Amino acid sequence: MKQLPLPIVAPATARFENFVAGANAATLQHLEQMGGAPTPVFLWGPSGSGKTHLLHALAHQRQQRGERVGWFDPSARPPWTMEPACTMLLLDGCDAYDDAQQRSAFALLIQAQSHGVPWVAAARVPPVDLVVREDLRTRLGWGPVFGLRTLPEEQARAVLRRESDRRGIFLSDEVMDYLLTRFARDLSHLMALLDRLDGFALAEHRGVTVPLLKKMLLEQA
Length: 221
Fold this sequence. Notes:
8 helices
């Protein structure tokens, strides 16, 4: 009988301080210094470039100040409404909104504009390339638009090392090389893989090695 893995280490809270900016330093600085300005912002970039991390970091920053933040993504079913005293709206995965979500998002942004509430939206493509209703696409692109880049290998390696150290996992150079040369350097994917590997190693009562990683991938395919 195998031991069932327990989540003994909670996921790190997404904050501005633990975002590895790399080529995205200007975007990070802009979001950190947004203050109460009503100007909206749009973030775009490939999966793993940090869009959702930055939205969560904004939510954390505002909530630490005692503010209310509205969060909307493709998993949230309409109708969408803005709560009283809300100071910011965050819209993730805009390129995946269905028709009902697009209608609700447009109405939500109209409401936010009338109350002077800023929003920050994110998608995998810039506003001009969004396949959504025209009025929503135009409104999403009203303010500054920032394109995010994925991290180069050395910075992705540093993030993996930091997270594995936080979890108390030893990742040898061999394991690290295997992860970074055989999988996309998509941080969201790599972090999910590390989470699976952590649980699998605990269940197997073994340290993290390349053979263990191969076994996990074979058994969990």
